[in-house]
Specification:
about 260 residues, 10 helices, two-stranded antiparallel ribbon, three-stranded parallel β-sheet, 5 strands, 2 domains
Amino acid sequence: EPVLQDMSTDLYLLPGDVALSSYEDALSNEWPHSMGDSNLYRPMRILSSFWQVMQMASQKIEADIILVDIGPNLGAINRSALIATDHVATPLGADLFSLQGLKNLGPTLESWKNLWKKRLDNWENSVEAQNFPDFQLPEGKMQPIGYLCQQHSVRLDRPVKAYDKWVKRIPNVYRKAVLGKNEDSKIKPEDDPYCLATIKHYRSLIPMAQEHRKPIFKLTSADGAIGSHANAVQNARWDFQRLAENISKRVGMKL
């Protein structure tokens, strides 16, 4: 049974745990077993376990949408978490590692989507599907809806140039690696329809928000957000508001 934490009005958290790392082996082992000719119920339950728990949690509170936050890797845990999703938004830093990760992410997502579809077809034609008619599985759509670009701290000219060098390459790499398009676009992220937002570097507001256990845009003067910090808090509110609106449009949800 999932244990939800009530964060604020109509917002609940289903927390993860570092102990989940021990579940990685089970997920890896059951991936090939789920394409067998028999005894598929256990492998499919294990592979869809994150989705099953999410559905149980959402039914408790009649959730409209589930947001899933995962780490930056392509391991078995993230595969099962992503299979549970309909849409994928990709956060990126302006550096070589993010671009290389993006090149790996696109083909991997497409592969997982196709392989999961084969497993769903295999399940539907199995004896177990008839024996467990109420057992539901995620569709594994994993539709890319865009990327977020995180802007690093800027000082003088050199960091700006270093940032621009990498950030200007993101639109093309995203199109080719994730969307499978071969167009050579000269578009900048700020003009790119696939760029959901450019997230500023909020510097000292991050540890301040962590200390007071609240979002950046809810910091007050009592928390220490005074002077220029107060202006940054207000800007953060508008930045995240636009991000939420962009994501809601991409997934077909009305705010």
